[in-house]
Amino acid sequence: MARTNRQSKILELISLYEIETQEELVSRLSSSNFDATQATISRDIKELGLIKTISQQTGKYKYSLPEASGQTPNKYIFILKESVISYNVVNNLIVIKTLKGVAESVCSIIDSLNLQNVLGVVSGLDTVMVIFADAIKAEYCLNKIDSIINF
Question: Which helix (H) or strand (E) holds 41?
Fold first, then answer.
């Protein structure tokens, strides 16, 4: 479970900050009370399938989730299965309840799926909301999310 929590935190950190190096990632993890070596982080980066992209804001390289290629990486499926407690459609929203502290990571993964008709994805400490124009589109995407989690 420690590895899953650490990897969820990595996903959260790269969604919040433009992290250029493994050393910077180790430092940010340490600030969040996750002790890990550079070698451990290197393995995590490989397992998560993170890539380096150029930041639109600074022009520097940063760690990012890979663009969706039609298939959800197994590691993301595992994190969703371990982190998501429940999910339901409420009008034009999908409300996803997660373990405390991993909603931002789940939000990043949901966002990386490039689901059709998503207007936005926001998260709190233990809740993710996926916003749609109407309830029909929300229900359709809930079925997609359900098929990924229950794969």
Answer: helix 38-48
Q: pLDDT tens-digit profile of 94-138?
A: 999 999 888 888 888 888 787 889 999 999 989 999 999 999 999
> Which of 44-58, 59-73, 81-95 has the largest mean confidence?
81-95
- CA pair distance 100, 84, nearest whole angstrom: 10
| CA dist., res. 29 & res. 8, Å (int) | 11
DSSP conformation class of 67: P
Q: If we measure between CA atoms, which residue out of 114, 135, 99 comes closest to residue 5?
A: 99
Strands (E), 2-149: 51-54, 61-64, 84-90, 93-98, 120-123, 127-131
Q: CA neighbours within 13 Å on the CB side: how many for 54?
A: 2
CA 147/CA 151 separation, integer angstroms: 6
Cβ atoms within 10 A of the Cβ of 99, count?
17
What secondary structure does DSSP assign to 22-36, as a single string? HHHHHHHHHHTT---
- Its pTM stands at 0.61
The DSSP call for residue 123 is E
